[in-house]
Each structure stands twice: as C-alpha cells, then as structure tokens.
Write a structure and sequence with these properties.
Elements: H1 14-31, H2 40-51, H3 66-75, H4 82-95, E1 99-104, E2 109-114, H5 116-123, H6 135-138, H7 142-149, E3 153-156, E4 169-176, E5 183-191, H8 198-217, E6 228-231, E7 239-242, E8 245-248, H9 251-262, H10 269-276, H11 284-298, E9 303-304, E10 309-310, E11 314-316, H12 317-326, H13 330-336, H14 348-368, H15 371-379, H16 387-396, H17 400-416
Parallel strand pairs: 6-11
Antiparallel strand pairs: 1-2, 1-5, 3-4, 4-5, 6-7, 7-8, 9-10
C-alpha cells in the first residue's frame, strides 16, 4: 500500500479485506500478535488500546449529558466552527447516510449529526454526544486515534478495536488552535464501507484545515485586544501571544512571566529573586539584566518596574485550569491541562505552583472516580507512576492491565523503603528520592 494512512488501496476487495482483518483482530486479542496486512498505524493503536486495558467487547461510556454537555459545548473553541462543519459536511453526511461527528482533545464526542437512520444505529453503540471515544476508553477508532497521534486517520471495519464498532468505517482529522498549535479535537465522518476510500480521508483533512483557517480569522471571544495570553502547561518554554505576535520565551523569561501573571499588583526585585533562584548568591544585577532583555522582547509599555509588573491583563492556561477546578468542572479542567507547569523549572515559586496545580487536579480526579478521566491521567507521562491515581483507577476499572501496573508500582514502592518499614498508604509523592 502506497499510503499507510489510507485503509484500502484502490481496487482492493473490501469484503475480502474485512475477513482478513477479523482473523488478524482475533489473533491479536487472543495471542497479542499482529499479522499482515494490518497497517502499522492500526497495529500501534491496538497495542496502545490493549495496554490501556480496553476490552474488545466493551462500549463507550457517556460522560456528559443535558446541561453539562450544553455548557461544555458552548464554551469549547470548536463551537465556533460548527456552522462551517455543517456547511461543508452536512449534506454529504445526510445524503450518503453517514454521520458528522466532532470530538474534543480527549476524544469526547461533542456533536454527532447526520442521517437519522444512521444516528439510531450509532446510538446502540453509544456513538452519541457526551460519550468518550478516546483510545483509552474504546480502543482504535478514527476520532480517538486521530487526536492520539495528531494525524488524519482512516479506520476500516475490523481495524476497530471494539467488536461493536467493526461494522463501521470512519475517517477523522485533528483540528488545531491556530495560535498555540495545540489539538482542540477532531472532525470525523462515520458510516459504511464506502468511506474506505482515499477521498474521505482527504475530505476530512481539508475540512479540518478550513476550520483552522476560520478560527485564525475570528477574534478571541471575550478577550481584550490589549491583553496577553500565556501558555505554560506541558512545555519547558512558554509561549506568549502579545499584540498579535507569538513569542517563544526562554526558560527564565517563562518563569518570570508566570510569576508576574500571578501577581498583577507586581513584585519587588527581592521578591522575584527569592521566587526565581534557590542560589542566594545570585545578585540583583543578574535579575535586572534578565528583566531588561524581557522588556526589549515584549516591546514598549508592557513591563514596568518598582515594582515589576505587567501593564495589561494576562490570561494563562494555568488560570483556566484553576478557575474550572474552583467551580467543580473537573472534566473541563482536565481538558485544559496539557501537562505540568514548566516541568523542567527549578524556580522555587514555580515548583510550588506546579505541585499545587497538579495536586489539586489529581485530588479532584480521585474524588470524582471517573474511570476515563483517571485513565487519561494515569497514561500521561506525568501520571504513569502516580500510585494514588492507579489505585483509584483499579477500584473503578479493575482490568488485568490496570491491576498489573498497580502491582508493579506497589512492588517498586515497597522496594524503595528500608526493610521492615511498612509504607501503608504512602503515595508516589511520598516515595524516597535517590
């Protein structure tokens, strides 16, 4: 096959390919081996699905309903391009007895529209708004896999990990925030075998690019044009949007802006020194030089001194997560959490803020006991050793894969403590450090 992202090469017999894929799927679920002609993108997704503990006979769970779903959709950035999706894909979906679906970056379906008969059929496998269709929830599928690998993906018949989904074929492409480059979600077309064609993959990819172009033309909602936007979660070097410019900040400048965004009233030089440097030998001259470079980078009028402060409002992804946690919107907070705050930073104040934000979110996740949200955290790089979260996940989703990982973490924790010491309820954050 010339293009590994396309499910069927031109001229291939879909019925024959379906039979071969069913045998390959059975071989994988029984023995863990992948046989030809399974595409590499599908084989990798099957392996990720198995590691996540997805059951081949399972189904999607509905996380958001009624008012919660409506509120979440209303504030999601992709709501602003739904008219465009309907214009470009609505007639195609209705006439072809297909479905137009849009999911968020966690694989949660926000909109499912199209032919009414096809919608009723899809309802039976919970392919409905508010349902979680991430790889960690239902295994290989176009919208979930697309956001997982950040690529347009086509999934044909028995390439789906869940047997309930194998009568379907789908193609999806991720949609990115044009300002930050982060995945907002994916647009998907789902239906019958006729979608197993290169044109359907190219179609959703073109629609996704059109949506990104449209988002770039729209002014940010409810954002002051003279404000700053700071993105600092999950990245060592923050990105700042200032007066239409994207600025990639150095690590030290990232730390300074994170702290000044937290303190609109400003910070004195001594306060910034203590917040940024563990080494007490660092002089005020060093800090003043960094601030002078930052002032030149930002441009005139944005950074003042005595005390050091930003002269315009700052919206940061840290503040978004905190606000959503404060209102009890755990799902929305997780959607905005792209990872630890400036993970490589050793600045004392940044370290404290990073821990406080992560601890607040993980505590809310454990209390919420939502298996998909817990799985998202546990499978992320920052959560793979989080014993509390794995314990909570095992209590609500006790699959063999989850239990195996929890057992390994428990053994690792026991080995890390001195002989004769009973760690009891010690968490990953309480482990001895070498």
């Amino acid at each position: 096959m010339t293009d590994p992202w396309v499910a069927l090469e031109p001229g291939a017999d879909p019925v024959q390919r379906m039979r071969v894929l069913r045998r390959a799927h059975q071989s994988f679920t029984e023995a863990g081996t992948v046989t030809r002609p399974v595409r590499s993108v599908v084989a990798d997704s099957w392996r990720r699905s198995a590691r996540a503990g997805v059951a081949p006979d399972g189904t999607a769970s509905v996380e958001l309903t009624d008012g919660d779903l409506g509120s979440y959709r209303a504030e999601h950035p992709l709501a602003r391009v739904m008219p465009l999706f309907r214009e470009l894909m609505g007639t195609f979906a209705a006439d072809g007895e297909h479905l137009l679906a849009v999911c968020d970056a966690q694989g949660r379906l926000l909109w499912v529209e199209g032919h009414p008969v096809t919608r009723r059929q899809a309802d039976r496998m919970n392919f409905v708004p508010g349902a979680r269709w991430s790889e960690t929830a239902v295994g290989t599928n176009a919208p979930g896999t697309s956001v997982a690998v950040d690529r347009p993906v086509q999934v044909f018949a028995a390439e789906h990990f869940s047997r309930r989904v194998q009568p379907w074929t789908c193609a999806a492409a991720p949609v990115h925030d044009p300002r930050t480059g982060r995945v907002l979600g994916a647009v998907d077309i789902t239906g019958g075998d006729g979608l197993a064609h290169p044109h359907s993959l190219g179609f959703v990819q073109a629609v996704a690019r059109a949506a990104e172009s449209h988002l770039a033309l729209l002014a940010p909602p409810e954002t002051r044009t003279d404000g700053l936007e700071l993105t600092a979660l999950g990245r060592d070097e923050a990105q700042l949007l200032a007066r239409g410019r994207k600025i990639r900040l150095s690590r030290r400048h990232s730390e300074i802006l994170v702290l000044l965004a937290r303190h609109p009233e400003g910070l004195t030089g001594d306060e910034l020194l203590c917040a940024l440097y563990e080494d007490e030998s660092v002089t005020p001259v060093t800090l003043r030089a960094e601030l002078a470079r930052l002032r030149r980078l930002l441009g005139p009028g944005l950074l003042e001194s005595r005390p050091y402060r930003l002269t315009v409002p700052v919206e940061s992804d840290v503040a978004v997560v905190e606000r959503r946690l404060g209102t009890g919107s755990v799902t929305a907070a997780m959607a905005a959490y792209a990872g630890p705050l400036l993970p490589s930073s050793g600045a004392p104040a940044v370290v404290r803020l990073r821990r406080r934000l992560a601890d607040g979110l993980r505590t809310a996740l454990v209390a919420r006991r939502d298996p998909d949200l817990l799985a998202d955290w546990a499978r992320a790089p920052w959560g793979e050793d989080d014993l509390d979260v794995w314990r909570a996940l095992a209590s609500v989703r006790p699959t063999a894969a989850v239990r195996s990982r929890l057992d390994a973490l428990e053994r690792e924790l026991s080995a890390a403590w001195p002989r004769g010491w009973a760690p009891g309820g010690a968490t990953s954050s309480q482990r001895p450090r070498s």
